[in-house]
Design goal:
Structural class of chain A: mainly alpha
CATH class of the largest domain in chain A: Mainly Alpha
Helix content of chain A: over 70%
Oligomer: homodimer
Number of domains of chain A: 2
Largest sheet of chain A: none
CATH architecture of the largest domain in chain A: Orthogonal Bundle
Strand content of chain A: under 5%
Shape of chain A: elongated
Order of helices and strands of chain A: HHHHHHHHHH
Chain lengths: 197, 197
DNA sequence: CCGTAGTGAATGAGTATTCAGTTTTCTGCC
DNA sequence: GGCAGAAAACTGAATACTCATTCACTACGG
């Protein structure tokens, strides 16, 4: 079997897992259910993934790879100011999650299942993502547009916190709003704060 | 048995549950383990709680009652400006979680187990908590110190998002920092934003 | 001495993972 | 092309658990 065909099957299993886990939750989804949706036998799952948990982590890895790739494109753009980069970053985060509700559910809910999984995830790709935000903030202070005394990493976590809460709130809301529509108010608050200027 | 003694036993079970679930996770903790730590038989748990899930929800209810009580005290204080109220609110949130790591773990991780539980929780006490933040922001716009065009509820969610991320980050970090030490930078960013003024 | 509270072994449902057997794909040869 | 044999991929029923919940019985307090 060619590498390409194997890769495609792996993707099919991951897609099936995203769909089922988003709807029934990680513990509510059996490996059999995922296998059935992917059109393979239960045992086949274990040819591609070490365990059910490994499957969940692989969903995360695949998604974060895309997130980080796109985010890096924004951060590394030449001749773009920090403010504009931040604007784009916020829009990107909200768009990527807002365009795939199943994935959003998994990111906002299912990945937080146990301290153990959360620790594993946050130690990996998550760090890179936060570092990218921090880079934008550092650029901003260098340009003199962002405050001089900013702790870039801490501030990056706050930026992430806002985006994360927007996503969770959207996932939980029944209303049919677009997540990306919150880009502007989020950026405004981040840049200008609550105070009147 | 007096109501008081019954209440005390219920509290003991809740305390035991907080401790065990924080350490092993909800799914990693058996009802037997909780019973053993509380010094009661397995069956006794079911005299006080409908199910294991009800136990988790009861932990949330008990904690949120305290949170909301203390938060309401801040929001309803007479003769205090919105900026100062926000400062106090941030400090309160970070202190309450920072002083009880087990409870913090449960809040930041275990409560988010399934969409189902999260929905249940966010529809109840969580709403009130957000509403309290929103009230402070509204007061600020009325006073003219906060921006006029603020969507108070949306901004409240952003405030909450930052606090929530600070707490999660603290829970996941091995370092021995105090969560409350982040009060000042959080408040600064919220009030003044990233931009130089 | 009775009703309330508590007990903990038994139940029964659920399911991740394995593995002996089957099918498909690949390889080298005519 | 086509074919045998080997290797790789796949299958799904059986295994080997784990645990929430129940309930017949016991102990206790008023």
């Amino acid at each position: 079997m060619t590498t390409q065909r194997k890769e495609a099957k792996r993707e099919r299993i991951l897609d099936a897992a995203v769909l089922e886990i988003a709807r029934r939750g990680y513990y509510g989804t059996t490996v059999s259910t995922i296998a059935r949706r992917a059109g393979v036998a239960d045992g086949t799952i274990y040819l591609y993934f070490k365990s059910k948990e490994d499957l969940l982590v692989s969903i995360f890895e695949r998604a974060m790879q895309r997130f980080n790739f796109e985010a890096a494109g924004i951060v590394e753009a030449d001749g773009v100011g920090a403010e504009e980069k931040l604007r784009r970053f916020v829009a990107l985060h909200l768009s990527l999650l807002g365009e795939d509700r199943d994935l959003a559910v998994i990111f906002q809910v299912e990945f937080r299942h146990t301290l153990h999984i959360l620790e594993r995830l946050s130690r990996s790709r998550m760090r890179d993502y936060l570092a990218l935000i921090a880079r934008v903030l550092e650029q901003g202070t260098e340009e003199g547009v962002f405050k001089r005394d900013l702790d870039a990493l801490l501030a990056a976590k706050m930026v992430f916190g806002i985006l994360d809460e927007m996503a969770t709130d959207w996932v939980l809301s029944k209303k049919n709003t677009r997540l990306a529509s919150r880009s502007a108010p989020v950026t405004d608050l981040l840049l200008g704060g609550l105070r009147t200027s």
